[in-house]
Amino acid sequence: MPTRGLIPLTLLITAGLAHGEPPCLDPLIERVSLRLRTAPAGLRPRLAPVPDPALTSHALRLQADAGELDLDWTDAQAVEALLADTVRATRAAEPEHGADMLAVYTAGPVDRAPFYLPLANDVRGIGYGRLGLAPTETFRSAVDPRLDGVAFLGDLPTALAEPVEAERLFLHELGHRWGVYVHLADGGDALLGRNCRHWSAFVDAGDAPLEGHRWSPVAGGWRADAPQPPLRYAPLTRYLMGLIPLDEVPPIERLAVAAPPCDEPARNGEPNPRWRALGPADPPWVQTAERVAHPAAQVVAAEGPRLPA
Question: pTM for the whole thing?
Fold first, then answer.
């Protein structure tokens, strides 16, 4: 059975503006089952160890020399450079940290959607070779050879004000460490939707945080509903994470709807329906189509077995 879990994880609080200390993290942290505390602000990063010795996470507060980070948050390259600097600061503050991933929130509002920045992959058979991140499926960045990646999760005030959405975003970006990028041996990219890095809107992913929908039979077709808390990764995602063996993954079911490839946001002025993702406030979506099932072995035939298992 797989032994690697989802922690240790380090939470970073970076100063987007010259706000004071961020408010207490407890309302958010309890939602994501991490017990973290912030360290005092300062010109140099400082770490506060978690009081519970059974947990290995830390919280780090970073602040620029002038007290602010003057950054164009709409510039993807600039934001990625900031995250690389954040990783280096973490390494300088605690050279022996054992985190696999960093989760970054800003102390003040910023105009930047959450995203996951891969820094390494040591797992074969989960589709990383299709992302074009490196010449080979497995790779490791020199920025910090110990880290798998960084999840940028937006600003902390919004996360504290909207804990349910904050939990969804946390699970969504965390899930991108492993998926979803896989193809089918007999159906190409039929499982994939937005940017070829999420479930297709037509995949019955249940209450999964990586998009897809819960599809239920209704008169005249199938009804899609937005995932509802408590969110749970789809079985195939849990296999890709290394949390369950392949023989525990049921067939992946989807609606067979003609649509552009997963890398096309629109065609002929019409949005790609595979990219659609219902929110909690959206009305149900009814679709007429044949429902098909793909054994998980079709993914293995396309990507190879997960190694390590």
Answer: 0.83
